[in-house]
Specification:
Blueprint: H1 2-10, H2 22-56, H3 61-96, H4 100-141
Helix pairs in contact: 2-3, 3-4
C-alpha cells in the first residue's frame, strides 16, 4: 500500500490544479457559482420561451405544449449527459496533463459548446419528430 502511494506521489506525468492561496480558492468557488447560476438561468429562459410558444399557438396549444415539453426534456437530458461526460474528461485532463488552469478553461469552453450544440440538435430533431407523432397519436385515439 505504501509503495503504491509513493509511486503516485513521485509520478512526473501527473500535475494537480495548483491552488496556492485563499484568493485563488475563492475565485474558483466564485467561478463555480457563476457557472451554476448561468446554467440555471439559461434553463429558465429556455423554458419561458417554450411557454411563450405554447401561448402563441392559441387554439392548438395542446399540440404545441406536447412538442415543446418533449423537446425540452430530450434536450435537457442530452445536454446533461454531455456535461457529465465532459466534466469527467476535464477531471482526467487536470490530473493527467500539465496544462492546469489553461486546460481547464479551454476544456470547459469546449465541453459547454459541445453540450449546447448537442442540446440544440436534439431539440430540433425531437420537435420535428414529435410534430408528426402528435398527428399519429391523435388519429389513433380518434
Amino acid at each position: 500500500m505504501e509503495r503504491g502511494k509513493n509511486i503516485v506521489r513521485s509520478s512526473r506525468n501527473v500535475t494537480k490544479l495548483d491552488v496556492t492561496s485563499q484568493v485563488q480558492a475563492s475565485e474558483l468557488a466564485q467561478f463555480a457559482k457563476y457557472t451554476k447560476f448561468l446554467g440555471n438561468g439559461l434553463a429558465v429562459i429556455d423554458f419561458t420561451s417554450r411557454i411563450g410558444n405554447t401561448r402563441i399557438a392559441g387554439g392548438n396549444w395542446h399540440k404545441q405544449l406536447f412538442i415543446e415539453s418533449s423537446g425540452f426534456a430530450a434536450s435537457a437530458a442530452t445536454g446533461t449527459l454531455v456535461l457529465n461526460t465532459g466534466s469527467y474528461a476535464l477531471g482526467l485532463l487536470m490530473v493527467a496533463t500539465p496544462m492546469g488552469w489553461i486546460g481547464l478553461v479551454i476544456g470547459g469552453a469546449l465541453v459547454v459548446g459541445a453540450a449546447a450544440g448537442t442540446s440544440i440538435a436534439t431539440n430540433y430533431a425531437v420537435t420535428s419528430y414529435f410534430d408528426e407523432l402528435y398527428g399519429t397519436i391523435m388519429n389513433w385515439i380518434n
